[in-house]
Specification:
23% helix; 791 residues; seven-stranded antiparallel β-sheet; alpha+beta; six-stranded mixed β-sheet; globular
Length: 791
């Protein structure tokens, strides 16, 4: 018996084990990392331990071993082993496992399609059943997210919740075929809130890893509740949801106060704003269903915060720094405003209010055109290399979760035939019966759950609304055996395998003109029949009554105004322009300067500023006032010019060379767009002071954050010149800060001088390759600079 305690994805993971051999151990040896064999020792603790055992196998030359594991203790591992494998009948155990898997996989039966398609389907269904995992001993004990041992009362505790991925399709699939386990998962969430202080984000072995974004245990709970799944404390559930949403985690406080996240407050600000808004819609629904009207009102307003990042000029969800659009903007660029993606991957992320999004984009025709552009553009990804963004159709990425609902959005524009084309293409081309048969990361069953649902002919675009948006089925017949004793059958009538366009749909023998299906219809049992053909039926699904509902109609907000300007830094003076995406909204603003008490006045036309200034603004329509936004403007010094001789990284340009001589230094949040990066290269720049001036100090303001590859320069060399051609060295600054794992830090690396000159040259030597301890050891590093300081 023993245990292994490790630190990786889970920061403190302990696996206890108990091994029993069928035959007596003849001798054993413990081998340690110090290479000393400790024969005869009964125990050892340390790193890199190995134990060796030898046996007399007898005539059959066979030694069986069985292993029990536990997250609680070695005694728990022994208890689990004794309870779950009481004998040595391997064949019986294998037969039991086979029977158990057949029971689970038999919940859905398919007929028709090719042999490969059936194999792909059942492989996918199998993948959806590999996690979450039971994390409870047979006596009910488990290790909670406080890493203490608790006793499960009335539920089984589970682990491995990849919720950013799985809330989209995996968990909705389970509300159809595994409602019983869904109850256990929700009760696990609530105990993680009770003992660990929060609902899970990405939990592993009792550890909250905080991998990915959002609070997506919320839609899992709400979707289950909407579908009639009970067996958990609803009061505690609402409390837990609000506790997370109203915390200050990952920018939530700024999001609540401002109505959106800006990137100087929290990186990946666009993705987080959009996903928080959807989660908040889920909280609003749950509050409404459980009778809390005040909480409903609060959260249905928050569910509309996605509007505050919609840029009407580009028709994209676009990042802000403070209250101004970050420029330059490239919708294809994978950067720090988005989570594992770009603006294309997030600009259709408002499943809770697609009517609102369609309205912002100018109606169904323009919405459909923009959506079609997503799938048909030939332009490639730009920006950071993101391994997760795979399986591309235009800018659509089937290999990563943010895109998973998008092919189904044509139904909301009255074009279901386009959804049918795309879903059929994805199912038949991106899922294959080969070792590389998935187009992206499985992500704990989500990639396969998308296929299982889509192959049956439908998908949950908005978990929590109880609807599945229709596409086109792969098989001639699919039969779902439900836990309530009913069965639901999907059939497809077609002449050839190339017939995938839906001509008509019937439900239980009655015409079904809707392009969506309600969950209740599945649970009641019955038959959904598709009549398919080889040409698109472009008249079907156009009426509003046929389109899936997705609209927020109560407690409408007024979106915040935005500053329509390329930069918040200027020389001389600059006109300040304000706009609103809300037709008919009035804008009010005030100018904030030290010692000046200002009041809000109506905005009629652009106004000019000529000094460092803060401008506050809000919009009003009817009686509804938006959140207030603030923007700081900085007047750049005009007494110097900079010329940079090094290649700046295209993702980190800070708007141009002048950012290095604007008199402003940044914070450790390097994702704001205010820093220059020089990747795998040194830095060299010459500053022209326009006339000879007395100088007392020269240096650079630099940043180190080793985990994301940013290292201080090894040294900085400062030189001066009267003519800009012949330079004299004044000093060198050698970095003494080690490249150890730790929090981000900033510092000014400079040297005191006494000189009179016009030209200053500053060179910085790259920090070199990443250190041996780094997970990307040996790769080049970034050199981050945000100011050349000359006093």
């Amino acid at each position: 018996k023993g245990y292994r305690r490790s630190k990786s994805w889970a920061k403190d993971q302990t696996v206890y084990f108990y091994i029993r051999f069928e035959k007596p151990i003849k001798e054993f040896l413990i081998h340690g990392a110090d290479a000393l064999d400790r024969k005869g020792m009964n125990s050892a603790t340390g790193k890199d331990l190995k134990a060796f055992f030898s046996f007399d196998p007898g005539d059959d030359k066979l030694v069986r071993a069985k292993v029990g594991i536990s997250g609680v203790s070695m005694e728990g591992a022994k208890l689990n082993l004794d309870a779950e494998i009481p004998n040595w009948d391997f064949n019986k155990l294998r037969d039991n496992a086979t029977a158990a898997w057949n029971t689970e996989l038999g919940k859905i039966g398919v007929k028709g399609g090719t042999k490969d398609q059936q194999t792909i389907f059942y492989s996918a269904l199998y993948h959806t059943m590999l996690s979450p995992n039971i994390y409870t001993d047979v006596d009910g004990r488990y290790r909670g997210t406080d890493l203490k041992v608790h006793k499960a009362e009335g539920f089984t505790n589970y682990t491995v919740f990849s919720l950013w991925d799985t809330y989209r399709a995996f968990h909705p699939l389970m509300t159809i075929i595994d409602q019983e386990r869904t109850k256990h998962w929700i009760n696990t969430f609530l105990m993680q809130h009770k003992y660990g202080g929060m609902l899970p984000v990405w939990e592993l072995s009792g550890n909250e890893t905080f991998c990915m974004i959002g609070y997506h245990s919320v839609p899992v709970i709400v979707d289950a509740y909407q579908k009639g799944i009970r067996g958990f404390d609803t009061k505690l559930a609402l409390e837990a949801m609000r506790q997370y949403a109203e915390s200050d985690r990952f920018g939530s406080g700024y999001y609540t106060e401002n109505g959106f996240l800006s990137n100087e407050k929290e990186h990946e600000s666009v993705s987080k704003t959009l996903e928080y808004a959807y989660d908040d819609w889920c909280i609003a629904q749950f509050a409404k269903w459980t009778g809390d009207t005040e909480v409903y009102k609060k959260y249905i307003e928050r569910a509309q915060f996605y509007k505050n990042l919609y840029d009407p000029l580009t028709q994209h969800m676009r990042g802000k720094v403070q209250s101004m659009w970050y420029s330059p903007f490239d919708a294809r660029e994978v950067n720090n405003f988005y989570t594992e993606g770009n603006s294309w991957h997030y600009s259709f992320t408002a499943p809770q209010d697609l009517e609102g999004l369609i309205s912002l984009m100018g109606g169904k025709v323009r919405f459909a055109a923009k959506l079609n552009q997503l799938f048909t553009t030939t332009s490639k990804l730009t920006g950071r290399d993101q391994a997760d963004v795979t399986g591309l159709i235009g800018q659509y990425a089937q290999g990563n979760e943010p895109s998973h609902h998008m092919a189904y959005l044509f139904n909301y524009a009255g074009m279901p035939w386009r959804t049918e084309e795309l879903v059929h293409k994805i199912c038949t081309e991106f899922y294959t019966n080969t070792p590389g048969g998935l187009i992206g990361n499985e992500d704990c069953g989500q990639m396969s759950a998308w296929y299982v649902l889509s192959a049956m002919g439908f998908y949950p675009v908005c978990p929590g609304d109880g609807n599945y948006v229709l596409a086109t089925p792969i098989f001639d017949e699919v039969n779902i055996q439900l836990e309530n004793g009913n069965s639901f059958t999907i059939t497809a009538e077609k002449k050839t395998a190339k017939d995938f366009y839906v001509q008509s749909v019937s439900l239980n023998g009655n015409d079904h003109p809707k392009t969506y299906l309600e969950h209740a219809s599945i649970m009641e049992g019955g038959r959904l029949h598709f009549r398919l053909g080889n040409t698109a039926n472009k008249t079907r699904g156009q009426r509003q009554s046929a389109i899936p509902p997705s609209a927020i109609t109560e407690n409408k907000i007024t979106p915040v105004p935005y500053f329509d300007m390329p930069s918040n830094k200027f020389k001389g003076q600059v006109p300040v322009k304000l706009r609103s995406i809300e037709p008919g909204a009035a804008i009010y603003y005030r100018i904030m300067r030290p010692g000046i008490r200002s009041v809000f006045v109506p905005y009629k036309q652009p106004f000019s500023i000529s000094a460092n200034t803060q401008v506050d603004a809000y919009a009003v329509k009817g009686q509804v006032q938006s959140k207030m936004v603030s923007q700081q403007f900085f007047k750049r010094p005009d007494d110097r010019i900079i010329k940079i001789f090094s290649k700046v990284h295209p993702m980190y340009t800070a708007g141009g060379p002048d950012a290095l001589i604007d008199g402003l230094t940044g914070t450790t949040n390097w994702r704001t767009g205010e820093w220059h990066s020089y990747y795998n290269s040194d830095f060299e720049a010459v500053i022209d002071l326009k006339t000879a001036r007395n100088i007392s100090h020269i240096g650079l303001h630099v940043l180190q954050d080793v985990s994301p590859w940013i290292i201080y320069p090894k040294e900085i060399i400062v030189e001066i010149s009267d003519d800009g051609k012949k330079f004299t060295e004044l000093g060198r600054i050698i970095n003494t800060v080690p490249t150890e794992e730790g929090p981000a830090e900033i510092k000014e690396m400079g040297v005191s001088v006494k000189a009179k000159t016009r030209f200053v040259r500053v060179r910085a030597v790259s920090g070199g390759i990443l250190p041996a301890w780094h997970e990307s050891a040996g790769n080049p590093s970034h050199l981050f600079i945000d100011e050349v300081i000359i006093k």
